[in-house]
Amino acid sequence: MAGWTAADIPDQRGRTAVVTGANSGIGYCTARELARKGAHVVLACRDESRGKAAEARIGEEVPGAEVELSVLDLADLASVRDFAERYGRSGREGLDLLVNNAGVMALPYRRTADGFETQFGVNHLGHFALTGLLLPKLLARPGARVVSVSSGFHALGNVDLGDLNSERKYRRWIAYGRSKTANLLFTHELARRAVAAGADLVAAAAHPGYASTNLQTAGVRMEGRRMAERVAELANRVIAQSADAGALPALFAATAPGVAQDAFFGPRVQGWRGAPAPSWRAKWTLDDKSAELLWSASEQLTGVTYEGL
């Protein structure tokens, strides 16, 4: 694992991957490198015009790349279902890799189309529904993987099972941390269920450390906080590692041989930057009961159940 780079990604020819949020940042870099190694990559993007631009850019950077755009808005469960139905009608026999990358961070209080607090709804519930709806395709491919992109900020707090949508009190960073804890609890329970069912499916997670993406500026831009936006932009230029480097832990989780169930990877150096390595995680992200309860609540909220697990 020492010094692992995108050049170490195994041959992906004959494999199909779905990457959410593939139009920019870590998602774009992940999709491009999978395509570079021969995978057919579905760019699951909310904004069609930005998705088309990303599709064209990958084609320029990786001549012959097999990529296609499919619109997906994780803040709208109807869109999630439409995406899964389109994939089902595509004629593909299965799905080898699902990278649950898209996310929002530290936004002012908002609700999704289905009434969920936006960070919890997009970062966790949208991906929970997407994975469940694509599960038959994943189970049809031996060795399929589901990689969820969490964050070191999961350490800000455990999920509040009595207030998943932050209706009693909303603190944007705590809500973000809880949504990233939810990503890890989801991975923990998906891995447990896959083992219990004897399914040839690996659930793993990763985080990018401090990588320069538009996540840092989106929330403050929404509020018109120009000074805070400038500070975030400066930090991205001076402190953060590149989006390419930030994508490496997810790419490792997605493609490296021998990745274990419920593994969690991040940058090697203090969890901020560097080559992928096993990452520290808060003890509450490994709690079986919390994972089971969050899973049950997520099924109820989304109406999606995992047939076969």
TrEMBL record:
A molecular function GO annotation: oxidoreductase activity
Methyltransferase listed as a keyword: no
SUPFAM superfamilies: NAD(P)-binding Rossmann-fold domains
Alphabetized InterPro entries for the sequence: NAD(P)-bd_dom_sf, SDR_fam
Superkingdom to which the source organism belongs: Bacteria
Keyword Metal-binding set for record: no
Keywords of this entry: Oxidoreductase
One protein family per Pfam: adh_short
Family: Belongs to the short-chain dehydrogenases/reductases (SDR) family.
Name this protein carries in UniProt: Oxidoreductase
